[in-house]
Write a structure and sequence with these properties.
Strand order of the largest sheet: 3-4-5-8-9-10-11-12
Helix content: 25-40%
Bound molecules: NADP nicotinamide-adenine-dinucleotide phosphate
Structural class: alpha/beta
Low-confidence stretches: none
Mean pLDDT: 96
Radius of gyration: 19 Å
Oligomer: single chain
Number of strands: 12
Distance between the termini: 35 Å
Amino acid sequence: MIQRRLGSSGPAVSALGLGCMGMSALYGSADDTESIATIQAALDAGVTLLDTGDYYGAGHNELLIREALRGRDREQAVLSVKFGVLRSPGGEILGLDGRPAAVKNALAYTLTRLGTDHVDVYRLGRLDPAVPIEETVGAISELVEAGYVGQVGLSEAGPETIRRAHAVHPVADLQIEYSLVSRGIEAEILPTCRQLGIGITAYGVLSRGLISGHWSPARPLAAGDFRGGMPRFSGDNLDRNLALVERLRAVADETGATVAQLAIAWVLSRGEDIVPLVGARRRDRLREALAALAVELTSDDVAAIELAVPQQAVAGERYDPRQMAILDSERRGA
Ligand SMILES: NC(=O)c1ccc[n+]([C@@H]2O[C@H](COP(=O)([O-])OP(=O)(O)OC[C@H]3O[C@@H](n4cnc5c(N)ncnc54)[C@H](OP(=O)(O)O)[C@@H]3O)[C@@H](O)[C@H]2O)c1
């Protein structure tokens, strides 16, 4: 498995990470047995980076990972965990909590659910506007000192927050949406991270399945699948976006890769400091995603991909207005 490093201070990890969110939340129901088999297949294939959040299924996702790791060497996995997004039993976002006491309390529960004495990267899922980032990162750095956490990470943070956080404790990586259709980080966030030696863990590289080549307007949305309310999956936007996917498919056919592999390979080609997470929930999807590591894009291929899916061509924002409003990375000037 090809390795990349999470920033200049972070650990070496597999060049593709597995994002486990969809196994517990947001994409409708999933099959636990298949989810665990998928995590184990990823580990067997050499994937080391597993990403989760304590609010993915209210702890369910961490329990799945614990089960998948049972009987294995804990050190085989680099566990990246998010906290601080408060959700009701029904899954609605209730608020954000980056208070130092909440940080430590959340980690205590996470360690128990994961069945481990440390996590490798710990990060606030969304900036809590009521708590200065220095306080939240300060609390994580105390957990680092105590040996419960390996590295400080960030999620969906903008340049100012990134700098302020990094001044308190070196930040290993910023987790943020980055794909052919979500290139906002290229203007300021990516250069800021590069200047500071902070890596990028890119999520949504398939735009939640939209640009995977497997999405169609006929696909029934399961109850609880939040994509039903996402702008890019709705109405005319969906038609326009799937037309882009067909243009990508034409390039994929020429290179012998699938659409999903091309989309993942494009993110991989954006820099050694970028580690794409893939949200595979099944072993067949995982196999397809991992094969993207063998897709070598020439500069002509990259040009053809970017011609097929030009920068501003996607229709719709990446989240609904309520969720866009809590993204520090999308604040004006961010
Ligand atoms: N920090 C943050 O704010 C944040 C936000 C969101 C996610 N994340 C992390 O990033 C991870 C990935 O994000 P994501 O799931 O939204 O993005 P994604 O990888 O863009 O999308 C995953 C979706 O694409 C579909 N898909 C189709 N072909 C696939 C293939 N070959 N490989 C993988 N998936 C394929 C999946 O399966 P089906 O077609 O089977 O449904 C799933 O519905 C999450 O699991 C989570 O750990 C972080």
